[in-house]
Amino acid sequence: MNSSNKKIIITGGSKGIGNYILKFFLKLNYKVLCLSRTKPKLKNKKLFFLKIDLSKKNQILKNKKRINNFDPDILINNVANIGTIGNFDKVNIQNWEKSFFLNFFAATYLTNIVLKRIIANNGYIFFMAGGGAANSFPGFSSYSIAKTALVRFVENLADENKGKLKTFILSPGPVNTRLFKDAKKGGHNISKKRFVSPKMTTNLINFILNNDTEFLSGRYIHVKDDYLSINAKNIKNFFLLRRLEKRRKF
Known about the structure:
alpha/beta; Rossmann fold; 7 helices; about 35% helix; about 15% strand
């Protein structure tokens, strides 16, 4: 994808994986609009910043025109938090709902705002979902359920816009970020040996942007998946949200 004059919106780009992705696209000479509560700690004439709390619907709607007028070629819905920690019968449901909004609805609202622009620009929409979308994640239900919902949302979005939109949901693996530190405080321990570099995420994004990957649109791809061996002929049900079936005979 030729990066000259290309524009990208990244949510949560001031820290963690989002900040790594932001720097990656600035190096490629993209104009980057970062949507987050805190400003990225770097200066670049192609970096633009919109201070916004994406857990609050009114702030998204208030900035709808400015976001849409940026006219992005790419949207990366990266922002997330681990949310309310604890078994569901013990959580504060209002806090649980607020986290669910940030992890699911923030991405869907932003997608709705810029979808027509992205399609017109023959662009891409990326979403992020950790392991909580692939398996049960006891004690972290708000995060897990929201990210699982995003996986199915992306499948629907791709099917509704076949031939018009390329959209993907990526799993970055266990990266040593604030989100994982918050999860550790809640009792979710991960060996440092399992940590992966955020470069694996930008490698996957770069592969998608610079190859014929439309057949992967709508798929949930982990950075460690063997996506290089998958093609339009053998894709089948790889990287989709599916259940194994064993039906009775009638």
